[in-house]
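__Record contents__

***
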Amino acid sequence: MRNIIKIYSSYLFLILISFLFECVFNTFNLEIFHHLIENVLFAIGIICPLFFLSKIGLRKLYYYISYSIFSIIICFETLYYYIFKTFFSSSAIFVALESNAGESKEFISSYGDFPILLIIIIIFATTIFFLLKRKNEYFINLESTKKNKLILAILFVCILISIRVFRLYHYNLPYLIYKS
């Protein structure tokens, strides 16, 4: 169980960086707290499949890919909230897809500032650090018993239900991309 906590800590660290950035550069509100909860549950949901992979190489590959994608998502969500003071929406994704290179360059030159550069560097450095830090021992000693798999399957279903019941999916970028 210690190894899964060590793996989860890398996700949690990114979540806390994002949360602190949002609190420092924006006023704290209930939406930021909901976004924090959604990210915590989303990270747990991402980690659950590690127990269902039997080969160590697949576990490592899954971790590297899922953690990299998670960090990109956290970065986009944080930057979007910083710039627009609201969270992603389906319409924002449509606008982004309809923009051309010239509009994108103009947008970056208008809104680019030190806090944006700072959060990109911090998230990128954190991602590289944790990707390089994770060793085989974390993936070898994951206890993949039937009992643990059942507990994680139930946990995963509870997370999905919680996100749905408390309407936290409105803060989830992958859901919004899928919806778009």
Remarks:
- The two ends are 37 Å apart (CA to CA).
- The mean pLDDT is 84.
- The chain is about 80% helix and 0% strand.
